[in-house]
Automatic annotation (TrEMBL), chain A:
A single GO cellular-component term on record: endoplasmic reticulum membrane
Cofactor(s) named in the record: Ca(2+); Mg(2+); Mn(2+)
Glycosyltransferase 2-like domain segment(s): 10-175
Protein name: Dolichol-phosphate mannosyltransferase subunit 1
Primary location recorded for the protein, binned into one broad class: endoplasmic reticulum
Molecular function terms, GO-annotated: dolichyl-phosphate beta-D-mannosyltransferase activity; metal ion binding
Subunit structure: Component of the dolichol-phosphate mannose (DPM) synthase complex.
Function field: Transfers mannose from GDP-mannose to dolichol monophosphate to form dolichol phosphate mannose (Dol-P-Man) which is the mannosyl donor in pathways leading to N-glycosylation, glycosyl phosphatidylinositol membrane anchoring, and O-mannosylation of proteins; catalytic subunit of the dolichol-phosphate mannose (DPM) synthase complex.
Subcellular location per the Swiss-Prot or TrEMBL entry: Endoplasmic reticulum
Entry's EC annotation: 2.4.1.83
Pfam families: Glycos_transf_2 (PF00535)
Keywords: Endoplasmic reticulum, Glycosyltransferase, Magnesium, Manganese, Metal-binding, Transferase
From TrEMBL, chain B:
Highest classification ranks of the organism: Eukaryota, Metazoa, Chordata, Craniata, Vertebrata
Gene: Dpm3
Protein name as catalogued: Dolichol-phosphate mannosyltransferase subunit 3
Keywords: Endoplasmic reticulum, Glycosyltransferase, Membrane, Signal, Transferase, Transmembrane, Transmembrane helix
Record organism: Podilymbus podiceps (Pied-billed grebe)
Any one annotated GO CC term: dolichol-phosphate-mannose synthase complex
Taxonomic superkingdom: Eukaryota
Length: 237, 92
């Protein structure tokens, strides 16, 4: 429990060139948490964005207060979560994307309370979860990759590459010590290791609104590195 | 035990059971109908799994939700957010 006995939610937002989207995400988070009466803080971890993301973050800090907005500037790339966690004072940590692809949702909090889960994972593949802005080819790749993952890893969660999750703080710390991969394979490894360590995982349908798909296609390189990562997890966990 | 090891153990178990029954020397063989069914069994199972995979992925692809409402709602939220933040003094 956080100080005072009530739950506090620390949202980790790694950003890179999110000057446009960051204020919108922060506004949505603040409003959602305030309306539901939950205590929260937002930790913005900026990786040296050249577009002025840091400056916008500082403005947001003035507007919302420095107890609600914390800015972290990691020295090394790829260590966003570790750095973010150092500042987190909540007992629950929410990880999500800062580019508005993840629809801010209170269901994570509700689901966690419902089953007292250690982890609540957002899934695009179940319930009324889904995506917006993907063509048939992209959906096929997504479903195909997920199917192979399910067959090989039997992870007990329907969406492994999604990165919209809620963790108990101690659980996230423990998992980060154990996980060695990077990028989205890291997200997969977290769930696999969590199952091995006996943590309980609840699922919540999420909407993934892809507004950048038109600009960034899923290339052959990414597919190859996904398969490499999957096979590595298959052989080592 | 890693997933890889689990698979290798499972395959070794099933493989040796199949080999023992299907490739047994003449004196220990099962009767003909059984042998005829058993011999191509691995290939049958592989094909069956292939069909199952195609059907499953096809079904999941067809039922993959398109979140029209979420996208529309997001647009509304964005407008509201921009208006409110401007009022609070944010310089975009």
């Amino acid at each position: 429990m956080a100080a005072g006995g009530a739950d506090k939610f620390s949202v980790l937002l790694p950003t890179y060139n999110e000057r446009e989207n960051l204020p919108l995400v922060v506004w949505l988070l603040a409003r959602t948490f305030r309306e539901s009466g939950n205590n929260f803080e937002i930790i913005i971890i900026d990786d040296g964005s050249p577009d002025g993301t840091q400056e916008i973050a500082e403005q947001l800090e003035k507007i919302y207060g420095s107890d609600k907005i914390i800015i972290s500037l990691p020295f090394l790339s790829g260590t966003a979560y570790i750095h973010g966690m150092k500042h987190a004072t909540g007992n629950f940590i929410v990880i999500m994307d800062a580019d508005l692809s993840h629809h801010v949702s209170l269901y994570f909090v509700l689901k966690q309370k419902e089953g007292n889960f250690d982890i609540v994972s957002g899934t695009r593949y179940k319930g009324n979860g889904g995506v917006y802005g993907w063509d048939l080819k992209r959906k096929l790749i997504s479903r195909g990759a997920n199917f192979i993952t399910q067959v090989l890893l039997r992870p007990g969660a329907s969406d492994l590459t999604g990165s919209f999750r809620l963790y108990r703080k101690e659980v996230l710390q423990k998992l980060m010590e154990k996980c060695v991969s990077k990028g989205y394979v890291f997200q997969m490894e977290m769930i696999v290791r969590a199952r091995q360590l006996g943590y309980t995982i609840g699922e919540v349908p999420i909407s993934f609104v892809d507004r950048v798909y038109g600009e960034s296609k899923l290339g052959g390189n990414e597919i190859v590195s996904f398969l490499k990562g999957l096979l590595t997890l298959f052989a080592t966990t | 035990m890693t997933k890889l090891r689990q698979w290798l153990c499972g395959l070794a178990l099933l493989g040796s059971a199949w080999a023992a029954l299907a490739l047994a020397p003449p004196r220990l063989q099962l009767s003909d109908p059984y042998r005829q069914a058993l011999l191509p069994l691995p290939v049958y199972l592989l094909v069956a799994f292939g069909c199952y995979s195609l059907a499953t992925v096809g079904y999941r692809l067809a039922t993959f939700n398109d979140c029209e409402e979420a996208a529309a709602e997001l647009q509304e939220h964005i407008s509201a957010a921009r208006a409110d933040l401007r009022r609070r003094g944010l310089r975009f």
